Amino acid sequence: MTNALDHHAMLAAAIAEARKGLAEGGIPIGAAIFDEQGTLVGSGHNRRVQNGDPSMHGETDAFRNAGRQRSYRKLTMVTTLAPCWYCSGLIRQFGFPRVIVGESRTFQGGIDWLRSFNIEVIDCESEECVTLLTNYIQKNPAIWHEDIGEA
User: Fold this and answer.
1) Are 41 and 35 in contact, with CB atoms under 8 Å apart?
2) Which residues are catalytic?
3) Can you say whether the dihedral through the CA atoms of 126, 67, 54, 23 is positive or negative?
4) Which residues make beta-bridge pairs with 78?
């Protein structure tokens, strides 16, 4: 089990990915996957805009970059924003036991559903994550609504 200090260190990797996405002209949502020792296994960011790929969310990019794993049952998914239903399904499907969320104020996603399967969801309530995404949404509301399927 990780402690609160580790959560913020892990979240920093996801935030760095979100900032990469923003610098590329995309939606600033980042994710990272860590093993039980806290070693980074893979990271990524939302590339829907950059790649024209509606399935390239931050969590799916991190998942792909982590490569094939024998098991996901001891890994932690870290994401700057509560995972959408699509990414929540990925977390559930592959048996991640824990998700560290930067924030869920901007978007709730499927965190209650994940919790219903006894998946540990830790919300860091990061003001940095809130500010990063809300500033983007204010400037790009149409892209955001497309990303969450409300276009």
Assistant:
1) yes
2) 59
3) positive
4) 32, 100
